[in-house]
Amino acid sequence: MFTLERLETLTQEIKKSRFLAFAAPVEDEQSARVFLAAHADPSANHNCWAWRLGQTYRFSDDGEPSGTAGKPILAAIDGQSLDRVAVLVTRWFGGVLLGSGGLVRAYGGTAALCLRAAAKVELVDRLRATIACEFADLALIKARLAARGVMIAAETFTDTGAVLTIDMRRDTADEALVLVSDLSRGRAIVSLDN
């Protein structure tokens, strides 16, 4: 699964109607709603949208015939294996009726083109853990974890050592935690956050 790196826009004209797509990464339902409110144009004929957050999704045809705008936009999101993404396609009517099939192609196609042009980043399931270690082990543990792509989110010091809060890929977490145990000869105390 992937998400977008940043906001992307695309404009195209189809049979005299102008379509403007905005696509952006979103973290939750509230940020999706804020994105849609910020980019919808009240002077346009239609502001159709869809968003997906894991198994949760929503879409709106905003006055277009049912199933001709929101669902095709959602299909464009799903068709490119995207998650945590919201897409808004705004239409200014140009005087030529597109018909149901034409609307599906126009909204879905505009959304798909916008998403295809966007920079994407892989969504990686991450796990957070806390490591309490002695000063003698600290530098080696930090260097080896960094070499494995483990991010140190926080570091605090105690009288005898340090407490590291780390973020790591869930699929490589077991290897990283075994490494910490081996490097500290079992002295480091590891606790997983939920």
UniProtKB/TrEMBL annotation:
Domain Impact N-terminal: 15-114
Domain UPF0029: 131-187
InterPro entries: EFG_III/V, Impact, Impact_N, Impact_N_sf, Ribosomal_Su5_D2-typ_SF, UPF0029_Impact_C, UPF0029_Impact_CS
Pfam families to which the protein is assigned, alphabetical: DUF1949 (PF09186), Impact_N (PF01205)
Source species, domain of life: Bacteria
Family to which this protein belongs: Belongs to the IMPACT family.
Protein name according to UniProt: IMPACT family protein
Record organism: Sinorhizobium numidicum
